[in-house]
Every structure is written in structure tokens, then in C-alpha cells.
Amino acid sequence: MRERQASQGARRAREFEAFVAGAAGRLLHAATLLTAESPRANPRARRLLTLSLARTYACWDRLRGEDPYDHARQQLAVHFARGAWHQHGRLGRARPAPDSVLARLTPQERLILVLRLYEGVAEQQTAALLGLPTERIRAIYARAMATLLHPPRGPAPALAKAVGS
Predict the structure, then answer these.
(1) What is the pTM of this model?
(2) Is 86 helix (H, G, I), strand (E, B) or coil?
(3) Is residue 144 a contact partner of residue 113, using CB atoms and an 8 Å limit?
(4) 3-state helix, strand, coil in the chain (%, to 5)
């Protein structure tokens, strides 16, 4: 009996290691987009990924027939949302890198934008995952895209000098 349990544990570990080898890079990139950190310095994204993978591993045996990537992405979104929206934990208190384009967005806008654009999650699935109406997802997504496509403009450099003189 112990040999069988040990063999199942080893198989489970191998399967999970193979999953992580194939999916961790994309999940880390998604986490980095969510936290709006630099890809070279992303400690919050790495913590978020670690938490997501730990939760995925904890229920690995129950995922039979389900896509483990989908589960890990869901965990990533849930942990980011809890930390950023509810201001609990390190994710909520930390500020995004100021030079990041995504830093102009709220955490909620970043989450919806990453799920919809980067991950390709359908509007209805995003709404179900976040517990929001589809219309709300659509409105937040439109606002985020408008913010990215039409950034606020400051005064022109030459005009600013002339006004200051």
C-alpha cells in the first residue's frame, strides 16, 4: 500500500513539474502584467505566481479532466483581486512601476484587460470568474482601453517653458 502511495505521489509530482515547466513562463508574464512591474524586477508577480501554483498543486488530484492552466490562471486572478481590490496583503499596498504603461490603470482594469486581451478569456467567463455582470466587464474593459489608447496629455514642453518664464 505504501509503495502504491509513493508511486502515485511521484507521478503527481512529475505531472505537476511538467505542467510548471510548460506554463510558468506565461503565468509569470500574466502576473507581471497584473502587478505592472518590470519583467526584470517583479517580486510581487513572483509571489502571486507562487501562491497560484501552490493552490493548483494542492488540488492537482481533483483536476482530472480539467485544464490545469485554466485553474492556475483563475487562482492568479483571484489572489490578485483579493490583494489589490481589498487592500489586504503586500499586493494591495505596493504601487506599480511608474514607467509601466499599465500603471495608469486601476488594479481592476488591469485584471480585466489581462484576462481579456493577454489570456483571451471570453467576456462571460471573465464576468463569472470575477463575480461581476457582463455589462460591467464590458464597461471596465472599454475604460481601460480608452485610457491606454488616449493617455492624458500634459502641456507641451515649449509652452510649459514659455508660461514659466
Answers:
(1) 0.79
(2) coil
(3) yes
(4) 75, 0, 25
C-alpha cell at 134: 457582463
Q: How far apart are CA 73 and CA 76, in angstroms?
A: 5
For residue 157, the model assigns a pLDDT of: 59
Report whether pLDDT(156) > 60. Answer: no
Q: How confident is the model at residue 92 (pLDDT cuts 50, 70, 90)?
A: very low
Are residues 104 and 113 in contact, defined by beta-carbon separation less than 8 angstroms?
no
Q: What is the largest CA-CA distance in the chain?
A: 85
Query: Is the pLDDT score of 64 beyond 90?
Result: no
Angle, CA 107 vertex, CA 106 and CA 108 arms, to 5° = 90
Beta bridge partners of 38: 41
CA dihedral 124, 150, 102, 68 (to 10 degrees): 20
**In the predicted model, is pLDDT for residue 163 greater than 60?**
no
